[in-house]
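Exercise 7 asks you to align residues with tokens for two separate proteins.
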Amino acid sequence: MLEDLLERLATHQIHAPSSTLSVGSRWTKSLDEHQRIVDHVPERDSAKASDLIQKHMSTAKALRLKMFASLMH
């Protein structure tokens, strides 16, 4: 499983060499989002954690699409 993950990550890096974490203050915001997700683990609040994960991934997707669009212009 780890090997598969690393192969997919390597492929992703070829197509998207810049991380969304390099955009503005995204690094700090992303760490905060991760912390909020982890905070719900001891509470076993899977619904809230799932909601936060979906928002986190939606933000990352929007940033990635914006980065791709800027490469096209």
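Second protein for Exercise 7:
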Amino acid sequence: MKKFVGFICLILMFVIPATVYLAESQETQEALTAISSIFEDFVSSKDNLTKSIESTTNSEVVTSGSTEEVQTVKNKLNEPSEAKSYPELTPDDWIDVSINDQKVYFKRGDEILYTMNCSTGLEGESATPLGEFVIEPERGETFYNQATGEGANYWVSWRDHGVYLFHTVPIDENGNYIESEAETLGVRPSSHGCIRLSVPDAKWIYDTVPMGMRVVVRE
């Protein structure tokens, strides 16, 4: 009997610690599993929150910005002002330049055929002259003015035979467009008196608008 009791005690000496160890290991494993689950939930929530913020921000940009605000400088430089074909002109059509609007309107009577974004002269000595004029014979593909350090492409004279022009956004001495200047088109004056336009708009005037067409420049 004593031997039997001793044998049982010996077994219990190994079984009890083993049971405790297994129980602790299971609790540790369960704890690690729970921590891992909580961490995964946190990462998932963070990612979802980030996506939600980005989606909201993008939505606000699209819905709150006007067409001019979201239009890139490159677009303003390289694209026509309107997403439609340029008009077929007739002898009675005329050009209406608004300083306040920073727009060039091609009109047939009072009907607006096409609207171009422009940038006119700065106030003071560089102001674009007001009045009624006509498209003059002088026009050319490019010029560069050493005094101002700027030139332009597709120029067409409308006053003083080569002094006041329709032309593109300025180019530098290497013939590259100064892209930052396109930002002012349709927004504010920035020229030395000429009427700046996007490249396609200026080229269309150079290619299409006839000598003698009436030009009205008003506030």
